[in-house]
Amino acid sequence: MTYQQFSSICGKYNINISEEKYNKFNKYYKFLIEENNKYNLTAITEEDDVYIKHFLDSMIGSIYMKDNSRVLDIGCGAGFPSIPCKIINPSLKFTLLDAVLKKVNFINMLSCDILGLDNCEAIHSRCEDLAKKPEYRAYYDTVVARAVAPLNVLVEYCIPFLKIGGKCILYKSRIVDDEIINATNAINKLKCKIVNRIDYRIDEIDSDRTILILEKISDTPNIYPRLQNKVRKNPL
């Protein structure tokens, strides 16, 4: 996909892409495809699909992140949504978290060696374990997650990392109403609330998408997140 094509598409979603930033996405795409057989990073490999389904969709969330925020990406995988958001807004300070070491290694090579990004580091850990460490708990302005888990699980994973008043930005499909209902108990117990729901459509791929934004309103009880995979096996 050329710079002119990508810039024109992004402009429809109020995202401005300079040629310099496009060149970073081009390097990202090439490195992703080069390493995909080794790391099994994504099933989406066709160039236009990666640019729209991964890069563009990820960047849309950056609109709701304040400049210079400390952002944690839970279950970062191949770097979505955090790396596209970092490219579009270099002021963001990202920590990327994944339980799969090979994906963490990929991200650190990508961010440092390939793209030369500052304040962008991947950590190998389970979020349940990392959230118990004082230096990470209640530390972040924003937590993001894309295609990770149902909402009642994500709330317990994400909220402990946020400062009071911090925001959780969750990328979802449009079919999210049942998830919201099922997450009522988790939202109450984790001391947060849904403050915004952004429904949007990516016309280029005929896809209806939703971003949910939750705000932390009080300290998270120390028992959360629960350990030993209880979050997924027995959601609140």
Task: Please tell me about this protein's structure.
The protein has a 7-stranded mixed β-sheet, sandwiched between helices. The chain has helices at 3-11, 19-39, 47-60, 82-88, 101-114, 127-130, 151-158, 177-182, 184-189, 230-233; strands at residues 70-74, 93-98, 120-124, 140-146, 162-173, 192-202, 207-216. With 236 residues, it is of the alpha/beta class. The protein is globular and about 50 Å long. A hairpin with a 4-residue loop joins strand 6 and strand 7 (207-216).
Q: Choose one word for the global shape.
A: globular
Main sheet makeup: 7 strands, mixed
Enumerate the spans where pLDDT stays under 50 for 5 or more consecutive residues.
none
User: Count of DSSP helices?
Assistant: 10
- The total beta strand count reads 7
Instruction: Give me the side-by-side strand order of the main sheet.
Output: 3-2-1-4-5-7-6
End-to-end C-alpha gap: 43 Å
User: What percent of the residues sit in helical stretches (DSSP H or I)?
Assistant: 25-40%
Provide the gyration radius in Å: 17 Å
SSE string, helices as H and strands as E: HHHEHEHEHEHEHHEEH
Class derived from helix and strand content: alpha/beta
**What number is the mean pLDDT?**
94
Q: Indicate the proportion of strand residues.
A: 15-25%
Question: How are the secondary structure elements laid out?
Answer:
Elements: H1 3-11, H2 19-39, H3 47-60, E1 70-74, H4 82-88, E2 93-98, H5 101-114, E3 120-124, H6 127-130, E4 140-146, H7 151-158, E5 162-173, H8 177-182, H9 184-189, E6 192-202, E7 207-216, H10 230-233
Parallel strand pairs: 1-2, 1-4, 2-3, 4-5
Antiparallel strand pairs: 5-7, 6-7
Helix pairs in contact: 2-5, 3-4
